[in-house]
Write a structure and sequence with these properties.
The protein has helices spanning 9-31, 39-51, 57-62, 77-90, 98-113, 118-127, 131-138, 159-195, 215-222, 226-243, 293-301, 329-340; strands at residues 205-214, 246-251, 259-262, 269-272, 280-290, 309-315. With 344 residues, it is α+β, with helices and mostly antiparallel strands.
């Protein structure tokens, strides 16, 4: 199964053009020190040619290290970072996540050459993303959440490089939330036009999104910058709140704090966590309101989770599921409990 950091070939081609633009802005820093070494410039040119569809991924994979090796011709940290930006850009043909590496090295090079300019460089990078590039980069896992590629817990996750990538990914997460808000407001207008006034979501069902993670995913999570996790989850939650679909959601504490009630024996047995031979742990949930299974799947697919994590999506039962037992005493009581707020 391909790494989520790879992206589709179409997305890699779009990202390669943007990565080449990022790297080219700092190329003069390298060429001022190594004017006879054309490997960095050639790497940027090949990234553009790949982006235009003139070169194949297979051919570029074989040459993906050439531009980055030009760093050995430079002496200053700024020039070295500029060469590595070119190397990352040329690697996008192999793996789309290298586009963020190109941007990070370019911003680092700019700041080393002129301290205090990193924020301006990142702003330029964000402003010069096409819609296709934004969409492609939003598909990448958050830095440090997936080990199968350059966004794992390696060099790009540390220091200034990691800070730049987190800034870009946070900005993209926020833009996604804003775009959802626009779509929701458009949909709301359609509802109101159809109903003759301010309406509410109609014909909806509740779905529970159950977060499950492997032990490896939990371990990787514990190594993350927790503020970046909060920002990503917050943006996701905010997008669902703005869309009017989020009803409830919570995370759970460490499995070691929990316990299991096992009903296999005549008398239930209570065992402290962790839970023995369990391959996946239930780490949290959302309850959303969606008009269809497809809409629920769309929201679930946007959750900022990495490799080793899954969302199980289950419809929450409603009154219609118990229509044959409408006269049952406790069915009637449940309706009262929900009406008076005793039961959500």
């Amino acid at each position: 199964m391909p790494s989520p950091q790879a992206l589709s070939e179409e997305d890699r081609r779009s990202a390669a053009l943007w990565a080449a633009d990022c790297a080219e802005r700092v190329l003069p820093l390298f060429e001022a020190e190594a004017p006879s070494d054309d490997r960095a410039r050639d790497g940027i040119a090949r990234a553009r040619a790949f982006g235009r569809g003139e070169l194949t991924a297979a051919g570029e994979i074989r040459r993906r290290f050439e531009a980055g090796r030009a760093a050995s011709s430079a002496k200053s940290p700024a020039a070295i970072a500029a060469a590595r930006a070119a190397g990352q850009a040329s690697g996008v043909a192999h793996m789309g996540a290298h586009a963020l590496g190109a941007a990070a090295y370019a911003a680092k090079a700019a700041d080393l050459a002129a301290p205090g300019t990193r924020a301006d460089e990142v702003r330029w990078q964000l402003d010069h993303m096409s819609a296709e590039v934004r969409s492609a980069l939003q598909e990448l896992p958050l830095l440090g959440t997936d080990s199968a590629g350059p966004l794992g817990a390696g060099l790009l996750a540390t220091g200034a490089l990691g800070e730049v990538i987190r800034e870009i990914q946070t900005a993209l997460q926020n833009e996604f939330a804003d775009s959802v808000d626009i779509r929701v407001r458009q949909s709301t207008c359609e509802y109101e036009a159809a109903s003759g006034g301010p309406g509410q979501r109609r014909n909806t069902m509740k779905y529970m999104l159950i977060m499950r993670s492997s032990a490896e995913a939990v371990e990787a999570y514990e190594q993350l910058d927790f503020e970046a996790v909060i920002n990503a989850m917050g943006a996701y939650n905010e997008s669902m709140i703005k869309a009017g679909v989020l009803l409830a959601g919570d995370g759970l504490t460490d499995a070691k704090e929990g316990f299991v009630v096992d009903f296999s024996a005549e008398k239930p047995i209570i065992t402290d966590g962790p839970y023995g031979e369990v391959n996946e742990l239930f780490n949290g949930f959302w309850i959303i309101e969606a008009s269809s299974k497809e809409e629920a799947a769309e929201w679930a697919s946007r959750a900022p989770l990495g490799a080793g994590s899954k969302l199980e999506v289950r419809r929450v039962t409603d009154e219609s599921d118990f229509a044959d037992y409408a006269d049952n005493e406790f069915i009637q009581k449940e309706k009262e409990w929900r009406a008076d707020g005793s039961l959500a």
